[in-house]
Amino acid sequence: MGFSSTFNYKQWSLSMVFRSNIGNFDYNNVKASLGVTEYILNPLNYLSNATTEIYKSHFYAPQYYSDYYVENASFVRLDNIGIGYNVGKVRGFNSLRLSANCQNVFVITKYTGQDPETYPLLGASGAGIDNNLYPRPRNFTIGANLGF
């Protein structure tokens, strides 16, 4: 579900977009792959990093058919927020508007992975399986619009 709104007061404007997914569950494959004792000493006999999940799960090898790593991935996300100010006429221009915008502002979730939204690779099944190792970036944008 989603919610968007725009507020205007004199020359100021504020807009925001919220998005939510309730009742969603994901398989945290990143945690399942790194949270096993086997990962510490791999077949090439050198030590690797592992997560502290090995103390909780007590799994030696990955458990791909287990629901141990299925987590509640419900979330509420503030996708976009923007603020703007209409300055008016300025030195030979009919109008000037200054604005600032932020994308991916925050996420409220109990999911322990990187991002509760999972997407399958192109042409592959896998929706609901978290293989994401890279975080979604937060973008800031500032702008000035001049009217002639």
Give me some keywords for this one.
three-stranded mixed β-sheet, mainly beta, single chain, 148 residues, 8 strands, five-stranded antiparallel β-sheet
Description of the structure:
With 148 residues, the chain is mainly β. The protein has one domain (2-147). It is 7% helix and 43% strand. The protein has helices at residues 29-34, 53-57; strands at 2-9, 12-21, 25-28, 70-72, 75-86, 95-109, 129-130, 139-147. The strands form two sheets. It has a five-stranded antiparallel β-sheet, with no helix packed on it. It has a three-stranded mixed β-sheet with strand order 4-3-7. The model has no long low-confidence stretch (mean pLDDT 86).
In summary, what is this structure?
The protein is mainly β and about 150 residues long. The chain has helices spanning about 30-35, 55, and strands spanning about 1-10, 10-20, 25-30, 70, 75-85, 95-110, 130, 140-145.
**Portion of residues within helices:** under 10%
Q: What percent strand?
A: 35-45%
Report how far the terminal alpha carbons are from each other. 40 Å
Q: How many E-type strands?
A: 8
Tally of separate helices:
2
Q: What low-confidence regions span 5 or more consecutive residues with pLDDT below 50?
A: none
Rg over CA atoms = 23 Å
Domain module count: 1
Record the strand order, biggest sheet: 1-2-5-6-8
Mean pLDDT: 86
Globular, elongated, flat, extended or rod-shaped: what is the shape?
Answer: elongated
Structural classification: mainly beta
SSE topology string: EEEHHEEEEE
The biggest sheet amounts to: 5 strands, antiparallel
